[in-house]
Amino acid sequence: MEIIPxxxxxxxxxxxxxxxxxxxxxxxxxxxxxxxxxxVKEFSDLLNSFNGLSFLKFADxxxxxxxxxxxxxxxxxxxxxxITMRKYLNKEGSEISGI
Length: 99
Hints:
Number of strands: 0
Structural class: mainly alpha
Largest sheet: none
Order of helices and strands: HH
Shape: elongated
């Protein structure tokens, strides 16, 4: 198996990463929104029986939730990268630097 090097310009890579992060957030939000709508459909009669309570509109909370999902994704990605780099540098980097 041969590894083919790929060159990517800085701007293209940054835009690609931003699109990927946003897409993952939108996918997560869509999944949660679908589950919420399913719960509304299945349990609306039960909730109405408790003194006329009703479900909140999901659209009112969708944008803040999208921001939270994106933030969680970025933080876990950065955290995982830092852990991996630290392990690599402790093991292999010491041989490179001669320590």
